[in-house]
Structure formats: structure tokens, C-alpha cells
Amino acid sequence: MSQVSTSSTSGGGVDDKTYAELQEIAARYPEPRSGLLPMLHLVQSAHGRITPEGIEACADILGISAADVSGVATFYTMYKRRPVGDYHVGVCTNTLCAVMGGDAIFSRLKDHLDVGNDETTADGKVTLEHIECNAACDYAPVMMVNWEFMDNMTPEKATQLVDDLRSGAKVRSTRGPRVVTWRQAERVLAGFPDGLADEGPTAGPASLVGLRIARERGWTAPDGDGSKPAGAIESDASNHAESAAVEESSSSDETAAEKDEGQ
Fold it and tell me: Is residue 40 a contact partner of residue 50, using CB atoms and an 8 Å limit?
């Protein structure tokens, strides 16, 4: 394996530290190629985007072609081929968030920031993008800043959020830690923790409703061997008996009706 050029990152090359960390990521896996996704996140952390030099470095370390790496980098939308601002602001515009106000939020932010989708403000602070789903429908409409949740948003709250980000004010996720820069977040996604994982709440009331109801009703998960707890079996038997009774009653009613029609 011959190491690719390690010129300074200002010229787009891969520096020695980044190359060594790319090797470290690949070494975590029995099959080194399995490390490609976090390796690409590290490239973004170092370069602010996926660069040709970063692609070549990944290919060199993994013993695959640059075309293979590029195919992965262009398939997933979290990998960017253009520079990203300090804060990547994603607005969910999938069905539920859209009807709850996501479309209005996205439209307001485009006007407020004077950018279009997947574009960066002139000061390099904010990149705006509409996101298909943030998997947080119970808090719709939802936004994310560098993949940290911002729940129950409104156009007014959204504009205040981006203004705070651009001014350098400290911003915290509604269900997570304080917001770091995009490059710092990309380093975490590469598998280098920043020590903030346990900072702030990780779940809110809407996400815990199911757990509360289960506890109130005495519902429990199956045992480790796949069998159901006695309470769950009794509950299932009761539900089946009730369903059978309803079906039998319905069947009897239908039979009686048929007899009446025959007469």
C-alpha cells in the first residue's frame, strides 16, 4: 500500500494525522471495508466536504478503487461534495412535519437566510437543507442542527435559532447536548467521541408515552428465550377469548338475519 499525498488540508490533501486516523478506523473492523462510512465522515471533519484526495486516501487504505468509494459517497445524502457551513440546518419536510408547519419553516428560512436548498450563507455559517425524515414525528415539526434535534418548531423559533447560531450564541438541542460545529459533529460520527453524549435530556415525554402506558397496565417484554411472561400469556388468552366471542356473536347475528330473509 502506497500512501497518497499528505499535503496540507488547505490544498485539499490528506494530512498525516487524518491519514493515521483513517487507518485507525479501518482497523476497528474484521473486514476493513466496513469502516468506509465513518472514514468518509472523518474526511468531512478534516476537509469540510468529501474531497477527491479524501476519496483516494480511503481507497488506498481499504484496497478498493476510488470509484467504489465515490459510489458510496454519492449515494448517501449525509456526504457533501460542496463545502458545508459551520452549522448544517435541516428542516423536515416529510408528510407529517410538512402539514404541521415544516414547509412554512423551510420557506421562511430560505427568505431569512437568502439561500436555497443545500446552499450556504455568504458568511459561511449556515447551510440549509430540507430533510426527508428526522424520525421524530412525535415532536413535529422538527429541525436538526448538525444532527441534533430541535423539536416543536415554528417559523419564528426557527429564525431565532439560525440568528443565534450565526451570532455565536450557545445553542442546545431540545433532546441532546449543546450544539457543536458541523466538522466537530462529523468527527463524532467517525467514531471519536467528544464527551457530550450524556449531556442534556435524551428523551422527552412524547417518546415515553408508550413506556408509561405499559407500566400502568403491567405489560412486559418477552423473556430472553423468546417466551412470553405469564401475565402477557394470560392477557393474550383473554384477548383471544374476547375476539372469539365477538366473532361468534357476529356469526349468530348473520345466521339469524339469513333465516329471516329466507322466511
Answer: yes
Spell out the residues 6+ positions from residue 157 whose beta carbon is closer than 8 angstroms to its own.
Answer: none
Closest CA to 148 of 194, 82, 208, 209: 194
Residue 129 amino acid letter: E
What's phi and psi for 89, nearest 5 deg?
Answer: -105, 115
Residue whose C-alpha cell is 478503487: 65
**What is the per-residue pLDDT for 207?**
85
The model's pTM: 0.76
Does residue 221 carry a pLDDT above 90? Answer: no
Helix (H, G, I), strand (E, B) or coil at 167: helix
- Enter the C-alpha cell of residue 56: 483516494
Q: What CATH code is assigned to 87-185?
A: 3.40.30.10
CA geometry: angle at 136 spanning 135 and 140, to 5°? 130
Tell me if the domain spanning 9-75 has CATH number 2.60.40.
no
Domains of the chain, residue spans: 9-75, 87-185, 220-254
Q: How much is the pLDDT for 202?
A: 74
